[in-house]
Design goal:
Helix content is 0%, strand content 52%. The protein is mainly beta. The protein contains no helices and 11 strands. A hairpin with a 6-residue loop joins strand 4 and strand 5.
Length: 123
């Protein structure tokens, strides 16, 4: 089993920055792909960014150039650096991980999910 614990959410004004962290526990050696998703009130869950085991990254168009996903393999921590935040980025952000190959796309469902961390951006 794998447990994912997010942290780093909060409230920030538009144009500000936040860094989310996701610590993975358990059988982390099984994980091949990790990602960040978000869900705003009244909207469907959206894939934001993913990173696979060789470091290849993918972003949804709305965050390209503003968000950066990275992973500390030694510490089993996934990060999401979010810059130039906009009110429309307000959402619950979830860390996700998957053991299957190839890496799941941002449209897929992942094996493991965290509880989420709230990000609120005010104008």
């Amino acid at each position: 089993q794998v447990q994912l614990v997010e942290s780093g959410g909060g409230s920030v004004q538009a144009g500000g920055s936040l860094r989310l962290s996701c610590a993975a526990y358990g059988y982390t050696y099984l994980l091949y792909c990790m990602a960040w998703f978000r869900q705003a009130p009244g909207k469907e869950r959206e894939g934001v960014a993913r990173i696979d085991s060789d470091g290849t990254v993918t972003y949804t168009d709305s965050v390209k150039g503003r968000f950066t996903i990275s992973k500390d393999n030694a510490k089993d921590i996934l990060y999401l650096q979010m810059n130039s935040l906009k009110p429309e980025d307000t959402a619950m952000f979830y860390c996700a991980a998957d053991s299957r190959r190839p890496c799941r796309s941002l449209l897929d469902t992942y094996n493991y999910w965290g509880q989420g961390t709230q990000v609120t951006v005010s104008s």
